[in-house]
Write a structure and sequence with these properties.
Elements (H helix, E strand, L loop, with lengths): L1 H12 L3 H4 L2 E2 L5 E2 L3 E7 L5 E7 L3 H22 L8 H15 L2 H16 L22 E5 L4 E2 L3 H6 L4 H19 L12 E2 L1
Antiparallel strand pairs: 1-3, 2-3, 3-4, 4-5, 6-7
Helix pairs in contact: 3-4
């Protein structure tokens, strides 16, 4: 809810939302299991996407992990053939990954690294962009990044209606991914349509 999201933002950033931003869109424009994203306008006029971690989600995840460990222990004891899959090790790896993902400072560092890789690559500068991070408005539970409006990559009819050549887009995306993997050694691991927009 709006009040809960605002309260978390104020708690994390140590000021009233009205003082921090010129406008805070109360209804999130995107949401997932761990967080929701609000459109925010800075006093400078810059528009940002403010990712707000769901209140209480950490405790829910910790409880889920405890259940996963119990199931993994039972599987290892009662189903000998599954032991080679190392269920307890899988849960440990999942726990490490999910707790790291819950720290938005870590996510901001990754986004900034991705942004820097694209920025210094002259061959991509004309067609591949990543959002900038606003560190002053980023904490472990709040992530502030440049708002980039565009058309989701899977909206083929809308792209064609704007006379955007989807073959060029596909080629550029493929080049970008090859560069991410083979040159930067650091790639975008969640390339769903919500994360790839055509500007």
């Amino acid at each position: 809810p709006e009040a809960t999201a605002k309260s978390l933002v104020e708690s994390e950033l140590k000021d009233k939302v009205e003082n921090l931003f010129a406008w805070f869109e109360p209804k999130p424009f995107a949401s997932a299991s761990m967080a929701q994203v609000h459109k925010v306008t800075m006093h400078s006029g810059n528009r940002i996407a403010l990712k707000v971690q769901r209140v209480g989600i950490y405790d829910v995840i910790i409880e889920d992990i405890k259940v996963m460990y119990k199931i993994a222990h039972v599987l290892e004891k009662r189903v000998p053939s599954i032991k080679s899959f190392d269920p307890i090790g899988l849960v440990k790896h999942f726990e490490y990954s999910i707790l790291k993902e819950m720290d938005f400072i870590n996510e901001s560092i990754n986004i900034q690294r991705f942004y820097n890789n694209l920025l210094k690559d002259d061959s991509l500068e004309q067609f591949a962009l990543a959002p900038r991070i606003y560190p002053a408005f980023t904490t472990t539970k709040i992530l502030a990044m440049e708002f980039m409006a565009g058309i989701k990559i899977d909206r083929m009819e809308e792209l064609k209606s704007k006379e955007i050549d989807t073959k060029i887009i596909a080629r550029r995306l493929a080049i970008s991914y090859f560069k991410q993997i083979f040159e930067y050694g650091f790639f975008h691991a969640d390339p769903h349509p919500g994360n790839i927009h055509i500007l």
